[in-house]
Structures are given as C-alpha cells and as structure tokens.
Amino acid sequence: MTESTAGVLVELHAASFGWGGRAVVGPVDVAVQRGDYLAVLGPNGSGKSTLARGLLGLLPPLSGRCTRWTERLGFVPQREALDPVWPITVEEVVRTGAAGRLHGLRSFSRTEREAARARMAEVGVYELRKRPFHALSGGQRQRAMIARALVSEPELLVLDEPVSGVDREATAAIRELLRALVTECGLTLVVVTHQTELVRGAATRAVWVDGGKVREFDAHMLNELRGLDELWTTRGGRS
Fold it and tell me: What is the rounded CA–CA span in Å between residue 109 and residue 112?
C-alpha cells in the first residue's frame, strides 16, 4: 500500500467494472477523499451499484486501475440483498460486523460486544437489541445494518440504496444519521441512491451515473432540484 496524497482514500483512474468480462460502468476517473460525502446518483440499472462494488474492491477493474490507501472499508448492501428472516437478534446481527477480525472459531470478546452496543446506541437501535432482526421495520433494519458496518471502525463507509423501501419519516432519520457520521464522527461516506432528498444539503460531492457513464457535478445543484427526474434532465439523461 503506497502513501496517499491529499488525503485520498480510494482513486479510480480510467477504471471500468462489470461482470463476466463485460463492462457495466466506466471508464471513470474519481477520487474519494477523507471527509467526503459522495452521492452516487442515477436511474435504476445505470451501474451505480457496480461502481460502488468497484470502489470497495469487491469487483476488480476490467480496465484502468483502482488504488486504495485504506483497508478500513465498511459496506451496507441493499435491503434486497439481505435475508430478513435471520433467526437472530439485532445485537447478534450487529456483532457480526466484527467477524472480519475473528480468527478461528472463537467467540466475540468483551471489547467487541461493547463496541457493538456502542454502535447500536450511536444509531438509535440499542433499545431494540434483544428483538429478532426480522421483526424490525425497514428503517430500523437499515439502522442496525449501519451499526453492523460501524463495528469494524471503517474510514470509508459505502451504502447502497440505504432508504429503499422505507417510509419518509425513516428516510429523514437516516439522512440526519448519515450527516452526523460525517460532520461529528469524521467518517467518509459514499451513498448510492436514486432518492435526491436523502443527500440534498448533505453531500459534499456528487456523480451522475447513466448508461455506464459517470460524470461529476456540483453537489450544490441538489439543493435546487425537486427530484431525480429533474436531475436526470439536467444531467442530459433524456433527449
């Protein structure tokens, strides 16, 4: 791992990512710097999630390069990627965020259990810790999954459609939680979403993904737009 310049955590240079040898998104040049709140916006099926997995190293670049100056990466996948009927409690789900640090078949240490409880308190699900994970509402599950990702103490946290399928009240609560993680906790965020209200007034940078092409634009534009349709037109996604 080489030394980062200007606080860059991840840098893509002419990088393309995809599946089965076929590029879905790219080539793209983008750098995620420490303290960024990067919004990745675009219509469904545009390549946003593929780009996120490339940033995390879950997909190797098909061309170009991806350089990461940190190994402390956290990921909150889409709700559709989870099995909501896990027969375990909220606290047990959150504890699994420390699994990457476990070696062999040992149990979680007291420090790891305390870290899980601290993260649950931080995101507002501590009182729900003994409840079955499947019994939570959509917004509560997302908070629990964010707590799970935070247990590993990431420098960069990537969230893929974190408010998909949750109501407006839960969306507003998660929006404020994400803002606090950046402004109060110093975390770097990459948030993949097609809901502009989640990142409006909070994102420091933004990229638009459509048809596999990625373009960066002024995040302040989000404050003046009503929704994704208007942003799509502004970004040239429609003829």
Answer: 5
- Considering the domain architecture, whether residues 237 and 146 belong to the same structural domain is answered as no
Write out the H or E segment, with its range, that includes residue 90. helix 90-95
Residue 9 DSSP label: E
At 131 the pLDDT is 92
Q: How many helices (H) and strands (E) does the chain have?
A: 7, 9
10-residue mean pLDDT series, the chain (239 residues)? 67 94 91 93 88 93 93 82 68 81 54 87 92 88 91 92 84 90 91 87 89 84 61 50
- As for how many domains the chain has, the answer is 2
Domain that holds residue 88: 81-153
What pLDDT is recorded for position 104?
A: 41
Contact between 148 and 96 (Cβ < 8 Å): yes
**Residue 154 near residue 71, CB atoms below 8 Å:** no
Question: 149 and 165 in one domain?
Answer: no
Determine the residue type at 111: T
The two tokens of residue 219 are: 């995040």
Q: How far is residue 187's CA from residue 129's CA, in Å, rounded to a whole number?
A: 24
What's residue 198's pLDDT?
86
